[in-house]
Each structure stands twice: as C-alpha cells, then as structure tokens.
Model the fold of this input.
Amino acid sequence: MIGIEIISSIYALIHLRDPVTAQHSYAMAACAYELAKILDPGNESDYFLGGLVHDVGKIGWPDRLLKGNQKVTDEDKKLLVRHVSDGVRFLSQLNLPPIILQMAQFHHERNDGSGYPSGVYGKYIPISGKIAAVSDVYSALRMDRPYRKGMSHDDAIAIMEVDRGLDKFVMAQFKNCTEGRNTIENLLLRNRPLVDSSHAK
Done:
C-alpha cells in the first residue's frame, strides 16, 4: 500500500508527541474509512491513512496549547489555524496520495464557508474534505479532553445534525453507517488490521 510505512512512522511520531492527539486521529481515521466505503469506494484505505496524519501540524504546538486546558490567547488562535497549512506543507513533500493531503487541508473547512483556513464552501470542498470534516468532529466530540468528558454517540450525532457547516448528505450517510454502534470502540476494532495499532493503545 502506497505510503503506509511513511504514514505509520508519522503516526508513531504524533503518538510520541501527544497520545491524546494520536487517539483522536485513529478514531477519525476509522470513521473516515467507514464513510469512504460508501461515498468513495476503492479509496477507503487512503482515507484511513489520511485520518491518521490529518493533524500532524499540531506537533509544532507548545505543550500549553497541545496538552493544556488554559484559555486560548489571540496568538494561540493563529497557531490553531496554522496547524492546517503546516501539516499540508509537511505532507506535500512526501509524494503521498492526493486524498491524504486533502484530508489534512480541508478537515476544518465547512460547507457553509465558516471554516478555516481558506473559508471555502460547498462545491469547492472535495468529498475527501467533507468526509474528513464529519469524521474529525465526531471523533473530537467523543474523546475525553482535559477540560471535559467525551460525549455519548447519540449526543454527538444530535449536535452534528444541526451543524450547518457539515455536509448534510455526508452526515446522513455517517449516521446510517454508525447505526446500532453506540461506542466508537466498535469502529476502531473494525479497522485495526489496516495499520499497526500498537501506538493507539
């Protein structure tokens, strides 16, 4: 599989830097894989790999921002936005499949144009970006954070369904493919064979 050794090494680095970010990335990858099986069949492995490294730009964040729960300053907000361009710049040097780069580039863009860093909307966001956005938000809502407990599956879905920034069709497909799976662990277990998961534990 093209890029799997490179991606596994980058993911290991992310885990060394911050296990919580690695856990979020693995969960995001599992969600993206499930969605891609429906919306972009044949490319689901690239979606899984892209999910693992979509937040690689965060490794440049200081610990107070990456691991802390302090109030975010205006300067911090610039770093938050910049992790997207930093990640894309890094991944662009590695001759990886386009889907992997697109997931890093578009995972914070929103269908209504309210996202970042470019504020693109609708038809200007590729399907990989829309899948990445839904998967990223779900994983983020489900994961425990230093400042809050992770949400239940049902609560996360309820919030996402009223989020105008998420593509409604992609969101509907995600809800359908996770029907009856009340924990994100089920998604993770289904997808572990795609990559060495020892770093996700």
About this structure: The chain has a mean pLDDT of 88. The radius of gyration is 15 Å. DSSP finds ten helices and no strands in the chain.
